[in-house]
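My main concern about presentation is that the manuscript never shows what a single data entry looks like. For the editor and my fellow referees, an illustration may be useful. For illustration, here is how one protein appears when written out as sequence plus structure tokens:

***
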Amino acid sequence: MTEPERPASLPPTETLEPALPAARVVRRERPSLVWLLPIIALAVGGWLLVQTLAERGPEITIDFPNAAGLQAGKTKVKFKDVNIGTVTDIAVSEDLERVLVTAELRHGTDHLLGEGTELWVARPLITASQISGLETLLSGPYVALAPGKGKLGRRRFKGLDKPPVVSGDAPGRRYRLRATSLGSLNLGAPVYYRSIQVGQLVDYRIDTDGKRLTLDIFIQSPHDGLVFKNTRFWNASGINVQIGVDGVTVDTASLISLLIGGISFETPPEPENPPQAPPDQFFRLYPDRATALKEPDFDRQTYLMVFEHSVRGLKVGSPVSLRGIKIGEVVDISLHLDARALKVSIPVKVEIDPHRVGLQRPLEQIRAEHPNLFRNLIDRGLRAQLKPDNLLTGSLYIELDFHDKVAPVTELERDGLRMIPTLPTPLEAAATRVADILDKIDALPIQAIGADLSATLAGTRSIVDSRQVRAAIADLSATLAELHRLGAGLNTEILPEMEALLRKAQGTLDGAEGALSGVQDLVAPGAPASTELVRTMREVSDAARALRILADYLERHPEALIQGKGGGR
């Protein structure tokens, strides 16, 4: 609906309505409060940003071989089971061989990051030496951190393939051992001192030359104060069984060492105050306690022994004894071929400690006083001989002793070493004698003797088959028949008569026994006949004495038989 037009006579609108007031611009001297709110919000946001950046911890990158079980935004970084960060990113390295794990740690953890810091993925681990990480079966794996003691500020680390046996912040010292074989040792193997565990084997590796191994051990504090520069370490793994002349010896450290191996150490009593061993000092790992604590020989003398027969069973370290007392050991065994004589010999070098022989003075002084001492000992029959150390193992040892009736020796030195003459073993000597006998038998004219024997047997056969021998055999048969007939007659005729004669002789003997009984009664002490017989015997004795006197007189005066005894005589 359109609006009606106004009449022309009517005045304009502005004349009919009052005029509007005009706007006046007034400048304020203070800013409006409206802008205060965004400024406050911006300041609060800036402060929060600064606070967030200030409280943000360090960001580190860890190089792992794989990322099994790790998740960005979920996997935690823990130190002593306390959450100190979270894994934020997982990427693959450019060479596609490693995994780069980025983790953001909490504020205030910078002192945990430095040289020597170790990081690894904690997973369930069950070995013979340790059981760890069982809690990750439910919560999942996490990145474990062990701080180092080196320079701080490091942000790039190489993760370990497996958890370390001893954390870097554990109090104690690390030492290194050199060995030719690992044996039954394994990571985490215990280290014992007097059967008490004081440390562990933390690492092992092959040396660059490939000839030996280097083992890293950790001794806990305060037991690391028991390690000195002259301390001896030995492998206490398993059971050490030795069979020797002293019997069977069984040595073991503990039941754990039977399963995973172990290392023991001890310090010899000399010197009295040895210096403390610094960290990372190298020690030799001996195979057993006896070898490690063997008494050192300060004045050992090297001698040479040459054997002509097999030395199977003799080895380096075999004992050298003097009448059963160990005075040294074998240090080298070699083989020598004489190209001219085509003869093989076995030179054996031994080391002997003169002090074990009982020398109370220095060897040089004794040699000065007795320059021919060694020669005199050889001339007295000092010889070396191989003898069995154990029949089960077949091992040998060298026995020194004095022997009678030995061949003289002219060579007493070779290659600058004094030589001790040798003798074959009793078995070898017997074999040599048997060989000599066989050689003598081989030297006999066996064929000629056989021919002569054959001729003799032929002659004997001709004699046996001769007519005379047959006639003699026939006569012998007749003689034997006659003897058989005589024997039959003896049984039927002669033997009964002999039995009758024996019965008569028995009766005669009985009568004689009765007569002797009567005689015994007559001659019994105190019997009349005995008394009379004693008196008669005295008279006969007196008569015999008189006759002896008469005979002596006549022997001196034979003329008395004619002239008689003179009155003056």
Remarks:
- Residues 467-522 form the longest helix (56 residues).
- Residues 119 and 145 are 5 Å apart (CA to CA).
